Amino acid sequence: MNYDRYINPDIAAVPPSGIRRFFDIAATMKDAISLGVGEPDFVTPYHIRNAAINSITDGETQYTGNRGTPELLEEISWYLEHRYGTKYNPKTEIMVTVGASEAIDVALRALISPGDEVLVPEPSYVSYSPSVIFAGGKPVGVVTTAETEFRLTPEALRASITPRTKFLILPYPNNPTGGIMEKEDLEKIAQVVREKELIVISDEIYSELTYGGKQHVSFAAIPGMWDYTITLNGFSKAFAMTGWRVGYACGPEELISVMLKIHQYAIMCAPRMGQVAALEALRSGRMTDYEDVCRMRESYDRRRRLMVEGFRAMGLDCFEPRGAFYVFPSIKPTGLTSEEFCNRLLKEYKVACVPGTAFGACGEGHIRCSYATGIDKLNIALERMEAFVKSLK
Amino acid sequence: MTKFEMELLDLLKEDCRLPLEKLAIMLGSTTVEVAETVDRLEKQRVILHYAPTINWDKTDRERVEAMIQVNVTPQRDKGFDEVAGRIYRFEEVKSVYLMSGGYDLLVLVEGRNLKELALFVSSKLSALEQVTATHTCFVLKRYKEDGIIFEGDKFDNRLVITP
Fold it and tell me: Taking CB atoms and an 8 Å cutoff, what residues of chain A touch B163?
């Protein structure tokens, strides 16, 4: 049977993730080292796992309220205020979602009207543009470059705005570049946002992972920006809790309540076990001054240095990432495209990386390497890559 | 102790075979500084020894371990130190700890077989005049030692590539 006439052509036209093909090849190669993993190599701390186990043993297996458990909402509110100086009312301005991914989807679906343009800095996480399309909007890429440390510049932002532009996705600290936005950078963006009256969807999932003494600044903390911002965050990266699928969205009640409507009908609630675990992550974090997070951050930081130096020693330009757990070196001197480089590196030298083009066309000439992998493996991967780059000369 | 020294110790504890250059890169330091610090920590006997953790059960070597709880009479002026010293000098003894609780010293011993350890307890340990009682517990299986889990821990459930 031909199903074409039943399938939404707009959805069919969205290409599958560029990451997928590499996954299929890499998954079959046993001795390959993968630098393609976009999640922590830590297991969720034991006390967090244990809290969830206890709740299951105690029979806490039911739905929670649509918005999330009151305890978790309270704790998120406390966390955001004390960590980033942003105030959200737990009863009206926060909702718990199935990972920050759901928060992205729900925010876009709740806000976008047909034909609205949504600005997406590139390179960035693979889901934004497809999610905009699924929501009936038009994604407009805003190019960021290594020369400006992959920051979103007000000039590039202005140049992309049309009368149809309503939203800006602000993905910092950034996957795949590791770029961050500091206070001054955000203030410049804030001017444009105020002037053009954009709503900003600030995806701050990597907010705990910044290096070199650079504390993450939340966009909603920039004076006057709270009203313009939906902040998205979650537990996956900071607390090594990817599989639990717990994230959250915060913003003005008027916007969150519309998002909550979709969440309520489509999802009902984030899994209770995940919410219990998330609550333990925040509570214990508060009591131990985020000891687990600090430990993981320091560990990433060392590996980050190792990778940057490793690529520079190969003669490849490598922007020093200030956040997340990726390096995004330039492979231009090799003369290969990102795709060719990654293909050959995987097949000939058994190291899996993701081509920069998976994160937007402007990622050409770069590859994304995750350093959320053991030091021993990183060292072997660097040796293999060095041998590969040498073989190309 | 500085933060730099602590971080260096953490890294060495994880893998003491990391080359000095790599350690320096990871700590944002220089090879010379790392070398000098390691040297100093060794001299100060902060770093005592570099050795792998071995799962002897996977080798052909016959090996029996026991933990012996020992009650002793402390000596005037010297407390437990002297008797502890007399115990830890035996080759069979791997570790000695002074303990709080129902006994005084915990002595970890290792031998080729049960007979060898039995002989150690009866003829060497119990023969010490300050030793008043011993309670020997043999190790049946080792699950985790010094932070390293012996079996089934090296899993990575992550997908090979994720966005």
Answer: 17, 19, 38, 125-127, 175, 358
Last residue of a domain, one of A256, A272, A288: A288
Measured in angstroms, the CA of A127 and the nearest CA of chain B are apart by: 8
Q: Give residue A393's pLDDT band: very low, low, confident or very high (50, 70, 90).
A: confident
Strands (DSSP E) along chain A, which ranges?
33-34, 94-97, 117-122, 138-143, 165-170, 199-203, 229-234, 247-250, 326-327, 351-352, 354-355, 367-370
A87 shares its domain with A106: yes
Q: Does A82 share its domain with A37? A: no
Contact A37 B159 (CB under 8 A): yes
For residue A26, what pLDDT is reported?
84
Same-domain check for residues A203 and A332: no
Is pLDDT of B4 > 80? Answer: yes
**Which member of A22, A354, A375 has the closest CB to residue B15?**
A375
pLDDT digits (tens, 9 = 90+) for B132-157: 999 999 999 989 888 888 887 566 78
Same domain for A38 and A53? no
- pLDDT tens digits for A299-326? 999 999 999 999 999 999 999 999 999 9
pLDDT in tens, A45-74: 999 999 999 999 999 999 999 999 999 999
ipTM of the complex: 0.79
Q: Give the CB-side neighbour count of residue A172, counting CA atoms within 13 A.
A: 27
- Residue whose token pair is 């990575």: B156
A189, A157 Cβ separation under 8 angstroms:
yes
**Distance from the A201 Cα atom to the nearest Cα atom in chain B, whole angstroms:** 19
Residue A245 zone, left/alpha/beta (φ > 0; ψ -120 to 50; rest): left
In a domain, B96, yes or no: yes
* Cβ–Cβ below 8 Å for B162 and A305: no
- Looking at the complex, report in whole angstroms how far the Cα of residue B101 sits from the nearest Cα belonging to chain A: 28
CATH number of the CATH domain containing B109: 3.30.70.920
